[in-house]
Amino acid sequence: MNSTPPAEPWSTQVHGETVTLPSTAADIRAALPPERRAEFDAALAELDAAGTSEELRTLRLAWWALEAVPGAVEETDAEVARLRAGDYSGVVTLDENGDLVPLDGHEAA
Q: With helix as H, strand as E and coil as C, how does the chain read?
């Protein structure tokens, strides 16, 4: 019997709505269109062959999870482009005390 606890669900915002993402390799593979599954399998095999760290593997799985949700990758790409252009409106981070700090210089909500 497998004693590994189930993965915590992942979620993100797509077009202003919260969506739950698949969070295990098996669930991500199942959620992908059939024509993308071989590419996913190859990407995982490449990570395994390279001895990729668990952190990087999780990041790659998260990206593939986004691939399984229509519009998620395009929205993420648009957000990254906005940030690269220097528009940090609405972006907050945590400081060393765990307090929210806006990156655009405005007060955190």
A: CCCCCCCCCEEEEECCEEEEECCCHHHHHHHCCHHHHHHHHHHHHHHHHCCCCHHHHHHHHHHHHHHCCCCHHHHHHHHHHHHHCCCCCCCEEECCCCCEEECCCCCCC
Residue 1 has pLDDT above 50, yes or no: no
Which pair of structure tokens corresponds to residue 10?
């992942």
Return phi, psi of residue 91, to 5°.
-95, 130
Q: What is the pLDDT of residues 38-84, one digit of tens each?
A: 999 999 999 989 988 999 999 999 999 999 888 899 999 999 999 99
